[in-house]
Amino acid sequence: MKNRKLAIVFFWCLFTLGCATGPTPIPEALAPEIDRSLSFTELLENTDSHVGKVVVLGGQVLQAKRLADATRIEVLQLPLKDSERPASQRTTSQGRFLAYEQQFLDPATLADQPRVTIVGEVTGLATANLDETEYRYPTIAIKHMHVWETPREESQSGFGIGVGLGGGGGGFGGGIGIGTGF
Protein backbone atom coordinates (compact mmCIF):
# COMPACT_ATOMS: atom_id res chain seq x y z
CA MET A 1 0.00 0.00 0.00
CA LYS A 2 2.81 2.41 0.90
CA ASN A 3 4.58 1.56 -2.37
CA ARG A 4 1.44 2.33 -4.36
CA LYS A 5 1.06 5.73 -2.77
CA LEU A 6 4.72 6.45 -3.41
CA ALA A 7 4.34 5.37 -7.04
CA ILE A 8 1.28 7.59 -7.46
CA VAL A 9 3.12 10.61 -6.04
CA PHE A 10 6.17 9.88 -8.23
CA PHE A 11 4.17 9.64 -11.44
CA TRP A 12 2.07 12.68 -10.55
CA CYS A 13 5.30 14.67 -10.13
CA LEU A 14 6.52 13.44 -13.52
CA PHE A 15 3.21 14.39 -15.10
CA THR A 16 3.23 17.86 -13.54
CA LEU A 17 6.82 18.43 -14.63
CA GLY A 18 5.95 17.33 -18.16
CA CYS A 19 3.08 19.80 -18.33
CA ALA A 20 5.20 22.65 -17.02
CA THR A 21 7.92 22.31 -19.61
CA GLY A 22 7.62 22.78 -23.31
CA PRO A 23 9.38 24.27 -26.26
CA THR A 24 11.03 27.59 -25.60
CA PRO A 25 10.31 29.75 -28.63
CA ILE A 26 12.86 32.44 -27.71
CA PRO A 27 16.51 31.56 -27.14
CA GLU A 28 17.86 32.87 -23.83
CA ALA A 29 20.70 34.67 -25.60
CA LEU A 30 18.24 36.83 -27.58
CA ALA A 31 15.81 37.61 -24.75
CA PRO A 32 17.77 40.62 -23.36
CA GLU A 33 17.90 42.25 -26.82
CA ILE A 34 14.10 42.33 -27.27
CA ASP A 35 12.25 45.61 -26.86
CA ARG A 36 9.04 44.33 -25.29
CA SER A 37 7.60 47.82 -24.88
CA LEU A 38 7.13 48.14 -28.65
CA SER A 39 3.67 47.02 -29.74
CA PHE A 40 2.80 45.94 -33.26
CA THR A 41 0.45 48.93 -33.57
CA GLU A 42 3.30 51.31 -32.74
CA LEU A 43 5.51 49.51 -35.24
CA LEU A 44 2.86 49.96 -37.95
CA GLU A 45 2.30 53.63 -37.15
CA ASN A 46 5.94 54.69 -37.19
CA THR A 47 8.17 51.93 -38.53
CA ASP A 48 11.09 54.19 -39.44
CA SER A 49 11.64 55.35 -35.86
CA HIS A 50 12.00 51.72 -34.71
CA VAL A 51 14.55 50.54 -37.29
CA GLY A 52 17.31 48.58 -35.55
CA LYS A 53 15.16 47.51 -32.60
CA VAL A 54 14.76 43.81 -31.86
CA VAL A 55 11.16 42.69 -31.47
CA VAL A 56 9.24 39.48 -30.94
CA LEU A 57 6.22 39.06 -33.20
CA GLY A 58 3.85 36.22 -33.78
CA GLY A 59 1.44 35.25 -36.45
CA GLN A 60 0.43 32.85 -39.17
CA VAL A 61 2.48 32.37 -42.31
CA LEU A 62 0.45 33.38 -45.35
CA GLN A 63 3.11 32.71 -47.96
CA ALA A 64 6.83 32.25 -48.36
CA LYS A 65 8.90 33.01 -51.44
CA ARG A 66 12.52 32.30 -52.16
CA LEU A 67 14.33 35.39 -53.46
CA ALA A 68 17.87 35.63 -54.84
CA ASP A 69 19.41 36.40 -51.43
CA ALA A 70 16.76 35.51 -48.83
CA THR A 71 13.40 33.91 -48.18
CA ARG A 72 10.55 36.39 -47.75
CA ILE A 73 7.78 35.28 -45.40
CA GLU A 74 4.49 37.18 -45.33
CA VAL A 75 2.95 36.85 -41.88
CA LEU A 76 -0.52 37.73 -40.63
CA GLN A 77 0.30 39.25 -37.24
CA LEU A 78 -1.43 37.64 -34.25
CA PRO A 79 -1.02 38.71 -30.61
CA LEU A 80 1.26 36.51 -28.53
CA LYS A 81 -0.02 34.65 -25.49
CA ASP A 82 2.03 34.35 -22.28
CA SER A 83 3.66 31.24 -23.76
CA GLU A 84 4.81 33.35 -26.75
CA ARG A 85 2.48 31.28 -28.94
CA PRO A 86 0.37 33.30 -31.39
CA ALA A 87 -3.35 33.54 -30.68
CA SER A 88 -5.53 31.21 -32.71
CA GLN A 89 -8.22 33.76 -33.65
CA ARG A 90 -7.22 35.38 -36.93
CA THR A 91 -9.70 38.22 -36.28
CA THR A 92 -7.36 39.52 -33.54
CA SER A 93 -4.75 40.42 -36.16
CA GLN A 94 -3.62 44.02 -36.41
CA GLY A 95 -2.04 43.66 -39.83
CA ARG A 96 0.75 41.96 -41.72
CA PHE A 97 4.52 42.06 -41.78
CA LEU A 98 7.32 40.67 -43.92
CA ALA A 99 10.08 38.63 -42.33
CA TYR A 100 13.31 37.86 -44.19
CA GLU A 101 15.46 34.80 -43.54
CA GLN A 102 18.98 35.22 -44.97
CA GLN A 103 19.91 31.55 -44.66
CA PHE A 104 18.35 29.15 -47.13
CA LEU A 105 14.79 28.27 -46.15
CA ASP A 106 12.69 26.20 -48.52
CA PRO A 107 9.22 27.80 -48.81
CA ALA A 108 7.72 24.29 -48.99
CA THR A 109 8.51 23.87 -45.29
CA LEU A 110 5.98 26.61 -44.54
CA ALA A 111 3.35 25.60 -47.12
CA ASP A 112 0.80 24.49 -44.50
CA GLN A 113 0.71 28.08 -43.12
CA PRO A 114 1.94 27.36 -39.59
CA ARG A 115 1.89 29.79 -36.71
CA VAL A 116 5.29 31.27 -35.92
CA THR A 117 7.01 33.30 -33.24
CA ILE A 118 9.78 35.45 -34.69
CA VAL A 119 12.55 37.35 -32.99
CA GLY A 120 13.95 39.85 -35.45
CA GLU A 121 15.40 43.25 -36.12
CA VAL A 122 13.17 45.93 -37.61
CA THR A 123 14.69 46.87 -40.97
CA GLY A 124 12.13 49.28 -42.42
CA LEU A 125 9.02 49.34 -44.50
CA ALA A 126 8.04 47.74 -47.82
CA THR A 127 5.09 48.67 -49.98
CA ALA A 128 3.36 46.03 -52.10
CA ASN A 129 -0.03 45.30 -53.56
CA LEU A 130 -2.53 43.50 -51.36
CA ASP A 131 -5.47 42.62 -53.57
CA GLU A 132 -6.42 45.95 -55.15
CA THR A 133 -4.73 48.26 -52.69
CA GLU A 134 -1.21 49.31 -51.79
CA TYR A 135 -0.18 47.95 -48.38
CA ARG A 136 2.68 49.03 -46.10
CA TYR A 137 4.48 46.10 -44.48
CA PRO A 138 6.96 46.52 -41.62
CA THR A 139 10.02 44.41 -42.48
CA ILE A 140 11.94 42.23 -40.06
CA ALA A 141 15.31 40.47 -40.43
CA ILE A 142 14.85 37.12 -38.68
CA LYS A 143 17.25 36.31 -35.85
CA HIS A 144 15.21 33.30 -34.70
CA MET A 145 11.95 31.74 -35.85
CA HIS A 146 9.98 29.15 -33.90
CA VAL A 147 7.48 27.21 -36.00
CA TRP A 148 4.61 25.86 -33.90
CA GLU A 149 3.08 22.47 -34.55
CA THR A 150 -0.28 22.56 -36.25
CA PRO A 151 -3.27 21.39 -34.17
CA ARG A 152 -3.37 18.19 -36.27
CA GLU A 153 0.27 17.41 -35.39
CA GLU A 154 -0.40 18.14 -31.72
CA SER A 155 -3.35 15.76 -31.59
CA GLN A 156 -1.36 12.92 -33.14
CA SER A 157 1.24 12.75 -30.41
CA GLY A 158 1.07 12.98 -26.69
CA PHE A 159 1.82 11.59 -23.28
CA GLY A 160 -0.62 10.56 -20.63
CA ILE A 161 -0.78 9.09 -17.16
CA GLY A 162 -3.77 7.45 -15.64
CA VAL A 163 -4.37 6.54 -12.01
CA GLY A 164 -7.13 4.28 -10.82
CA LEU A 165 -8.24 3.34 -7.35
CA GLY A 166 -10.95 0.92 -6.53
CA GLY A 167 -12.06 -1.64 -4.10
CA GLY A 168 -14.73 -4.09 -3.38
CA GLY A 169 -15.56 -6.62 -0.72
CA GLY A 170 -13.32 -4.94 1.83
CA GLY A 171 -10.31 -4.97 -0.48
CA PHE A 172 -8.34 -2.16 -1.96
CA GLY A 173 -6.99 -2.16 -5.48
CA GLY A 174 -5.71 0.26 -7.97
CA GLY A 175 -3.52 0.78 -10.93
CA ILE A 176 -1.29 3.20 -12.69
CA GLY A 177 -0.88 3.44 -16.43
CA ILE A 178 1.51 5.41 -18.58
CA GLY A 179 1.21 5.74 -22.31
CA THR A 180 2.47 7.64 -25.27
CA GLY A 181 0.73 8.23 -28.54
CA PHE A 182 2.02 8.93 -32.01
Q: Which key features would you list for this structure?
A:
two-stranded antiparallel sheet, Slp family lipoprotein, alpha+beta, signal, 5-stranded mixed barrel, 7 strands, lipoprotein, OMP_Slp, 182 residues, 3 helices
Helix and strand layout, with pairings?
Blueprint: H1 2-20, H2 40-45, E1 54-66, E2 71-77, E3 96-101, E4 115-130, E5 133-147, H3 151-155, E6 158-166, E7 173-181
Parallel strand pairs: 3-5
Antiparallel strand pairs: 1-2, 1-4, 2-3, 4-5, 6-7
Keywords: Lipoprotein, Signal
Signal peptide: 1-21
Protein name: Slp family lipoprotein
Description:
This is Slp family lipoprotein. Pfam families: Slp. The chain is of the alpha+beta class and 182 residues long. The protein has a domain at 31-153: Nucleic acid-binding proteins (OB fold (Dihydrolipoamide Acetyltransferase, E2P)). It contains 3 helices and 7 strands. It has helices at residues 2-20, 40-45, 151-155, and strands at residues 54-66, 71-77, 96-101, 115-130, 133-147, 158-166, 173-181. The strands form 2 sheets. The chain has a 5-stranded mixed beta barrel. A hairpin with a 4-residue loop joins strand 1 (54-66) and strand 2. It is globular. The two termini are 33 Å apart.
Number of strands: 7
Shape: globular
Q: Name the CATH homologous superfamily of the domain at 31-153.
A: Nucleic acid-binding proteins
Second-tier CATH architecture of the domain at 31-153: Beta Barrel
| Quaternary structure state of the chains depicted | single chain
Tell me about the biggest sheet? 5 strands, mixed, barrel
Please give the count of helices: 3
Per the CATH scheme, the topology name of the domain at 31-153 is: OB fold (Dihydrolipoamide Acetyltransferase, E2P)
Q: Given this structure, which CATH class of the domain at 31-153 is correct?
A: Mainly Beta
Low-confidence stretches: 6-21, 153-157
Strand content: 35-45%
What strand line-up does the widest sheet have?
Answer: 1-2-3-5-4
N to C succession of SSEs: HHEEEEEHEE
Q: What structural class results from the helix and strand content? A: alpha+beta
